[in-house]
Specification:
This protein is mainly α. It has 5 helices and 3 strands. It has a domain of 66 residues: 3-Layer(aba) Sandwich (Rossmann fold). 45% of the residues lie in helices and 9% in strands.
Length: 99
């Protein structure tokens, strides 16, 4: 599924999870709902709320937005470095597997 999403020109969905995946993959998304829990995706221009209005859906799908790459709304400064540090620390304290 992720490969299909990554290769898509635009994604149409009512799924909150797929909206967020589209954002992470930098694929424009048309959401078939009137609201979203991922308002950041709309604010940054990667997601359009079209609801069930067929004209809005078709218009948004035919002219998908592709904003300039900006800051990831879900990754704070240094978050990758902190994640690596946590994983390395967890690996050092993990018990050895019985052989």
């Amino acid at each position: 599924m992720a490969r299909l999403e990554a290769d898509a020109a635009v994604i149409l969905t009512d799924s909150g999870g797929i909206q967020k995946e589209a954002y992470w993959l930098r694929v424009p998304c048309v959401t078939l709902r009137e609201e979203t829990e991922w308002v950041e995706t709309v604010q940054q221009g990667w997601n359009v709320l079209a609801g069930a209005d067929s004209e809005r859906i078709v218009e948004a799908a035919r002219q998908p937005r592709r904003p300039e790459a900006g800051e990831d709304a879900y990754a704070g400064a240094g978050s990758v470095g902190r994640l690596v540090e946590v994983l390395e620390t967890a690996g050092e304290s993990a018990p050895e597997a019985a052989g």
